[in-house]
């Protein structure tokens, strides 16, 4: 079954929609410059709405240990997503210190970016392959930008991985078909405006992924 992660949830309606749609993972953004950012306390309150449900994935950009500790003191996470310029050694250190699986986001623009995954393979549990940010963006992700899905077709990615970047309910089935992705991640494509999730689009996205499997 294709894994589905809905990222950047910052309100109750969005959190409930992710759980009701049966997504596998929910992403909580702990990066203050993002329009989707939540505080540790806000994330804990959202997470407490649902017992069980999707894995809570904390998204961080070049976090300090203190930042990670503050979030993990407020709520349990199932995975740490690192979406900055973290080195393989830093990924290994975070994984060892916090005892959680690490998903490293890597920007993909050409085949050499996929060859570079080998440097991270021993130190991470999962990859998230995203587009590189556009030059005028102030965010390392969440830019509604796709990369060439055919780049991953037929390639062996050395860890389980999620496809991200510019996916929408309308495009995700074709993206899975072209890329061969075993999982997908979306933020902008399920919003009604920047940083504001649309419950109907969250449901449509998960339904489109499940429909692509049928
Ligand atoms: O969503 C954000 O605001 C964000 C901020 C900083 C780093 C990563 C961020 N989002 C991640 O980017 C992917 C792709 O986003 P989109 O669907 O193209 O908008 C998203 O799923 C998050 O994992």
Automatic annotation (TrEMBL):
This protein's UniProt keywords: Amino-acid biosynthesis, Aromatic amino acid biosynthesis, Isomerase, Tryptophan biosynthesis
Record domain N-(5'phosphoribosyl) anthranilate isomerase (PRAI): where: 4-207
Molecular function GO terms recorded: phosphoribosylanthranilate isomerase activity
The reaction(s) this protein catalyses: N-(5-phospho-beta-D-ribosyl)anthranilate = 1-(2-carboxyphenylamino)-1-deoxy-D-ribulose 5-phosphate
InterPro entries documented for this protein: Aldolase_TIM, PRAI_dom, RibuloseP-bd_barrel, TrpF_fam
Pathway connected to this protein: Amino-acid biosynthesis; L-tryptophan biosynthesis; L-tryptophan from chorismate: step 3/5
Domain of life of the organism encoding this protein: Bacteria
Pfam families (alphabetical): PRAI
Entry EC no(s): 5.3.1.24
Protein family per UniProt: Belongs to the TrpF family.
HAMAP family membership: PRAI
Protein name in the entry: N-(5'-phosphoribosyl)anthranilate isomerase
Organism encoding this protein: Paeniroseomonas aquatica
């Amino acid at each position: 079954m294709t894994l589905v992660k809905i990222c950047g949830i910052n309100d109750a309606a969005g959190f409930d929609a992710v759980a009701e749609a049966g997504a596998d993972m929910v992403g909580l953004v702990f990066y203050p410059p993002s329009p989707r950012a939540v505080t540790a306390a806000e994330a804990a309150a959202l997470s407490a709405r649902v017992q069980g449900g999707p894995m809570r994935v904390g998204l961080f950009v070049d976090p300090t240990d203190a930042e990670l500790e503050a979030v993990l003191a407020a709520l349990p996470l199932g995975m740490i997503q690192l979406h900055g310029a973290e080195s393989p050694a830093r990924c290994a250190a975070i994984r060892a210190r916090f005892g959680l699986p690490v998903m490293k986001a890597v920007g993909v623009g050409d085949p050499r970016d996929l060859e570079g995954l080998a440097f991270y393979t021993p130190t991470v549990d999962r990859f998230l392959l995203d587009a590189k940010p556009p030059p005028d963006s102030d965010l390392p992700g969440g830019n509604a930008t796709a990369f060439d899905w055919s780049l991953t077709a037929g390639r062996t990615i050395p860890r389980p991985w999620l496809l991200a970047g510019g996916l929408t309910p309308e495009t995700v089935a074709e993206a899975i078909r072209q890329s061969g992705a075993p999982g997908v991640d979306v933020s902008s494509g399920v919003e009604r405006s920047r940083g504001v999730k649309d419950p109907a689009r969250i449901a449509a996205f998960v339904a489109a992924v499940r429909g692509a499997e049928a």
